[in-house]
Amino acid sequence: MTSQPEKRDMPLSPHLQIYKPQMTSILSILHRGTGVVLYFGTLLFVLWLTLLSSGPESYACAKSWLKSPIGYLFLMGWSFSLFYHLANGIRHLAWDLGHGYDLKTAENSGKIVIICAISFSVFSWALGFVWGKIWS
Q1: 112-115: long-range contacts (C-beta < 8 A, 24 or more apart)?
Q2: 122 CB neighbour count, 10 Å cutoff
Q3: Do 87 and 116 meet the contact criterion of CB atoms below 8 Å apart?
Q4: Cα 44 to Cα 52: distance, rounded to the nearest angstrom
Q5: Which residue has the higher pLDDT, 83 or 25?
Q6: Does 95 map to a domain?
Q7: Measured between alpha carbons, how far is 17 from 86 in angstroms, rounded to an integer?
Q8: In contact, 79 and 121? CB cutoff 8 Å
Q9: Residue 115, domain member (yes or no)
Q10: What is the reported pTM?
C-alpha cells in the first residue's frame, strides 16, 4: 500500500504576499486603458465623419447606431476616458514639475482626478441632453 504525501500549505508567491495594489498603480493602469479607448474612439469618430460625408442614408445608419443603448454606453465610456486622461495628464504635468510626489498628495490628487473625470462626464452629458432637447 502506497502512502500519499501529506498535503502541506504551500507558501504563496512573494508578490502575492507583499504587493497590494495602490491608488497610483491602479490609476496608471487606468490611464493606459483610457488611452486605448481614446485611440479606438477616435477611429470610430473618423468613421462617423466619413459616413456623415457619404450621404443621408449612411449618416442615418450611423446615427441610429450611436443612439442605441450600446452606442450611448460607448460614447459615455469615451467621454469618461477623455476627461480622465485629461485630468490625469495634468496631474502628470505637475509631477514633471516636481510637485506631488509624496504618498498622501499622490493619493489625494488621484481622488481629485477620479472626481473630476466623473463630474465632467456627467455634466457634459447632462448639458448635451438639455441642448439636444432645446435644439431638436
Answers
A1: 112/87, 113/27, 113/84, 113/87, 113/88, 114/27, 114/84
A2: 14
A3: yes
A4: 12
A5: 83
A6: yes
A7: 34
A8: yes
A9: yes
A10: 0.80
Set of cell numbers at residue 8: 502541506
pLDDT band at 6 (very low <50, low <70, confident <90, very high): low
Q: Rounded to whole angstroms, how far apart are CA atoms 133 and 35?
A: 31
Number of domains in the chain: 1
Composition of the chain by helix, strand, coil, percent to 5: 80, 0, 20
Grid cell digits, residue 43: 477611429
Rounded CA separation 92/129 (Å): 32
Q: Residue 92 maps to which CATH number?
A: 1.20.1300.10
Site of grid cell 460625408: 53
- Does 91 reside within a domain? yes
Q: Report which of 90, 94, 86 is spatially closest to residue 117, judged by C-alpha positions.
A: 86
Residue range of the domain that includes 102: 23-135
